[in-house]
Protein 1
Amino acid sequence: MLRLSKKVEYALMALRYIVTSKDDIVTAKEISTKFSIPHELLAKILQKLKKERILESIKGVNGGYRLEKSPEKIKLTDLIKTLDGDFSITECIHGQSEDDCNMFKDCTIKTPVNKIQKELESFFETKTISDFV
Amino acid sequence: MLRLSKKVEYALMALRYIVTSKDDIVTAKEISTKFSIPHELLAKILQKLKKERILESIKGVNGGYRLEKSPEKIKLTDLIKTLDGDFSITECIHGQSEDDCNMFKDCTIKTPVNKIQKELESFFETKTISDFV
DNA sequence: ATCATATACGACTATCTTAGTCCGAATTAA
DNA sequence: TTAATTCGGACTAAGATAGTCGTATATGAT
């Protein structure tokens, strides 16, 4: 239904929170409490953002997260690809060639669908965390 | 994951088929066979398109469907709204006011999310069946 | 009239994805 | 040593999507 996943929503709220926080380091607990997001779930999200080098993590007591990339460099496409694993408006698109689809041998809408995919992707490329601050 | 539903995909294929068909009237059977789409499922889709006055139906033997609107007037947003019931990138958006969201009492991303929603909606407004023919 | 071929429509089921939980680590400052 | 934190995988729950089934209704052809 063309909907942002909760993971991405949570990530946006968390990133905004981190960006605007007066503290250098912010814990997953703090964010999950603030927004009533299940702690374990948010923790996983932040861990993925760390792997993607969007966040930097500090382990142990007094640990937490802080930005590794600057807000204007964190694109919405990156969040979607990292957290949802993919960015494609149809199952048959995997970011590769236009001819990969073998789901419908007589599918006639490959070309326009690919065009829309590319346009959408460009659109989300232009959206960064800066737009959320 | 920001994906078009199968319903919308099927609708696009079906509409394109109807538009480019040399026959005045096309049956659901013909289309479902052509693309290996489950017949009952496609039938429901076409019925919804009929209610939306995108298609016109003819009952009984030799019945079927034909376009009621011209291809350039059938927008992708219409298909999504009709078939998926809604068009919103987040649960808290229902096309109404920006302040309807009560999911997160401290949600801080309402405004930017609403902006993106509107931009996306405009984008899909510009896409019509003409783009698929 | 009857029959075969269509659409119309609601209820149901199956499948897949997403969201959320649980458990046990490893790390580190106090 | 302890408490607070990140890390990682496996699991379960919930919800949305996809697909099925049964029946009714309309209508042209025989």
Protein 2
Amino acid sequence: MSTPSSRVTLRDVARVSGVSPAAVSKVVRGAYGVSEQMRQRVNAAIEELGYRPSIAARAMRGSSSTIGVELASLGNPFFAPVLDAVMSVVDDSRYQVMVAPSQSPEREGQRSLETLSDHNVAGVIAVSPVIDQAWLEEYARAMPLVILGRDLASDAFDVVSGDDADGTRQVMAHLFERGHRRIAHLTRSEQVTDPASGSPHARRLAGYLRAMDVAGLEARVSRSGPREEEAFAVGVDLLRGRERPTAVFAANDALAFGMLRAVDHLGLTTRDVAVVGYDDVPLARQPGVSLTSVNQNGEQMGRRAAELLLSRLDGRTDPVREVVPVRLEARGSTA
Amino acid sequence: MSTPSSRVTLRDVARVSGVSPAAVSKVVRGAYGVSEQMRQRVNAAIEELGYRPSIAARAMRGSSSTIGVELASLGNPFFAPVLDAVMSVVDDSRYQVMVAPSQSPEREGQRSLETLSDHNVAGVIAVSPVIDQAWLEEYARAMPLVILGRDLASDAFDVVSGDDADGTRQVMAHLFERGHRRIAHLTRSEQVTDPASGSPHARRLAGYLRAMDVAGLEARVSRSGPREEEAFAVGVDLLRGRERPTAVFAANDALAFGMLRAVDHLGLTTRDVAVVGYDDVPLARQPGVSLTSVNQNGEQMGRRAAELLLSRLDGRTDPVREVVPVRLEARGSTA
DNA sequence: TTGAAAGCGCTAACAA
DNA sequence: TTGTTAGCGCTTTCAA
């Protein structure tokens, strides 16, 4: 049967089927201008030899048939449905998916994007890249690019993001309705919430500040690293401080989980301190967790990003900036 | 500044620095036999032009400097530390990491592995691939391969797996100690627990059956799909049946979470039905969840897999089969 | 120490 | 409709 390695080349197939390499190439690509007779002979030889085209060689010629996905922090469960959706869409095309992971979003995603272009991928979906916009524009000049999760305005690349303004509005309305006044916001570092970054955290923070301002309340922002452990430590500090908040809006579920653990650690319950998250990862609905959270519809975000990239590769040139609707899932003590 | 696209070629660098392409190639690769003077001139030109070698072209020549990781179900949080560790190790080498994701483990991983070899990667780490051993052997004949998470015996590839026999022993001892006698096992489909597959689920099931047999107890095995929702449904059935078990050993945490939700759904608590999982994903320790689980040390598994692959690429030929120790983390109602 | 030349496997003109 | 030819950007003998 077929050997996994690509030892069998197009020339081998050509020799066996008695045609030219170019002809084989045409058959393989389903290109125009091949007789049915030739198709059959060539396909028979391909089958017989177990031929598989070398993507590496194709990539060098310019058309790599591979779509690259840049992805930091694979650990974030929110990205799983996003990637699944991307793959579903791409599966129906002639492209394949390769993921260039980066360990930390900050300053590493850039390297992953470079790796991808070094591989001559046909186009790239970058998931929440923490990268300077100018650099991304420059990158997009040479490579079809879709940014997922950052609401940047650019005519060099397409953008798909969740409706953070609306999501945050829903969260704050929900908490106000339940009578909360001392509401703290737990988010990431200043760098991550830089308004110019277009990051979701920036928009959530902005929405929180606006809502508190409109309500005439004092905003209280705590900052933590991305990990649950870091959020836990910050959360303990926050809850031990004076004027303990009655509710905490965490900028994502990982932070919310850390916060929940801090609540528990101090012998409090979510009746004392309500916690709301963002992302609605699968375990938010777990009994015993029951975290109120905003579902970002990652599946739809991934699908749209893939569709946009494919249409770019198909020739579209006008940029698209798309916002996906979100929905608060109320649970547990704040339901 | 540097353009992300690889428009600048080695020839351009050669022209600017006034040397031959071959010379530039040597400098770039740090190959033997280049004068200090030449190094400097070439490096200056590289800097000036923002040159980046094309991986695609390199790959075609045979030496791709890329390590491929085959990964099904990115959603499984157990894999995050595994991949992180792989990346950490690879970062210190001249290689890069590319991930070929597959949506469903069954029969899709094969395609991902083929994609990887079509890309001419230098070597591959396959994470828990549900693939026929003969096929893997064939594959490994053409490509350095490390299997992570399946305990297969082969001299064609290297193997790293967790010590499931010991992990299961710890789980069962723990439950027996707490007086449980009616202990059910929740696992995946028959296909996945096929003993010949070397899958972790097969070994956990075997360990469970052995332990029950030795204790003179009746084994009760329930089967479910991989997702939490499916485990929930099966769990509800199991708990509604006659002779409700007092404890359930779930073959991994996703199944355990479904089981926990089933317990809750039926108005029971983990005092009525104890649940133990396997993988010790981060949220197992979450207050309100407090799932007793076996920590598989994914970080160590990933690190060893990467080290083994690098040493293969460095010329090692004798196969290695390595087992990583595991540890039960007792929590909550079974602690 | 350096360079010339051949070719990896494929695609895309162009010619037949 | 088919085949010939010329590279893509790089590495690697082999001579100089």
